[in-house]
């Protein structure tokens, strides 16, 4: 970190060639420093003053931080937009910034952009251009902005924003990692629109120490005490990374992410936050937006974010992304019968859902640690060891929602949310298959 050093004696610039002592000088001191005359007159023209780039524990001047906090509002009407997209692995997030000349009210007003897909594993080197289509806008908690009304993103002389994009070839075809395109088609279906699908997604994640890739709060190469006191726990020996969780919570609220809560999880160093209720494609946009914010916060904190569904093998809980789902018919009187019919459809398409619910999920869905086995489908009321859980209140009221506990923490929310809508609202099983599934699951619809 750069420091400005000046002679200590009364902060006077009475420097001689023999001067050797130096002490840190604050920015205010630098700006207000007056050249004084000594008894013999003005400072000799040959005297030299040096600015040294050294590190000191005292009076640190962080000029980079000053620039990051710089208010540019009085000087420009332009906007900084951070274009964000999903990389070649299907789970990594990439972004880059550009200047926009004026405020916008809708993502469609933003220009399309492009990037080098050969560097993200999404295009060959000889035809590497991938096109970014802006799809959703959020406020940027990292660069800030002069907001007075946090419910809007428009009519400000200067602000910054995060732009969630999906990805296309120059010919306008969605590339393979663009899962948003198909999801949007499903959510545009009139049958799906009429049912107003709601989602509440529980995103679990693990914080890892840098270099060693071992959970935060764990002794390096060792293990903490067994699970039990950590879930929603408080205290230095139970909670590891609360500042990151809290920072993420506030940053999401600032950004306009529909975050609804957060808590410490069962495995130490593991946390969860919830997003929703969100309608349709919005659920995927908000989860990806919240993941990007979490990546940036852990970057600044010097901690590694892991969405691996089973980051530590053994007697430890894995990390999931439980997805709560309901339709208009489920939420109305008689909705419990609609929920049971939906469970039948989900049972019949169990393999299709499992194959789309996250990489490495077989290490998590073992039938232990509050999971069902990956090889079989089950449902139950208030049973966290089932594939699908129905809450006691839903059973009591005769309407409500279901919770799909199968998705892994690294699932693509566009895939999971649209597949739930497709299976329960658009897909029709044969009567024979439905009868067999109902008998096996002891369901009457």
UniProtKB/TrEMBL annotation:
It is found in: Plastid, Chloroplast. This is Glutamine synthetase. SUPFAM superfamilies: Glutamine synthetase, N-terminal domain, Glutamine synthetase/guanido kinase. It comes from Quillaja saponaria (Soap bark tree). The keyword ATP-binding applies. Pfam families: Gln-synt_C. Transmembrane segments: none annotated. It is an enzyme of class 6 (ligase). Its main location: plastid. Residues 79-172 form the GS beta-grasp domain. GO terms for molecular function: ATP binding; glutamine synthetase activity. Residues 176-445 form the GS catalytic domain. Homooctamer. InterPro entries: Gln_synt_N, Gln_synt_N_sf, Gln_synth/guanido_kin_cat_dom, Gln_synth_cat_dom, Gln_synth_gly_rich_site, Gln_synth_N_conserv_site, Glutamine_Synthetase. One of its GO terms (cellular component) is chloroplast. Keywords: ATP-binding, Chloroplast, Ligase, Nucleotide-binding, Plastid, Transit peptide. PROSITE patterns: GLNA_1, GLNA_ATP, GS_BETA_GRASP, GS_CATALYTIC. Its EC number is 6.3.1.2. GO terms for biological process: glutamine biosynthetic process. It catalyses: L-glutamate + NH4(+) + ATP = L-glutamine + ADP + phosphate + H(+). Belongs to the glutamine synthetase family.
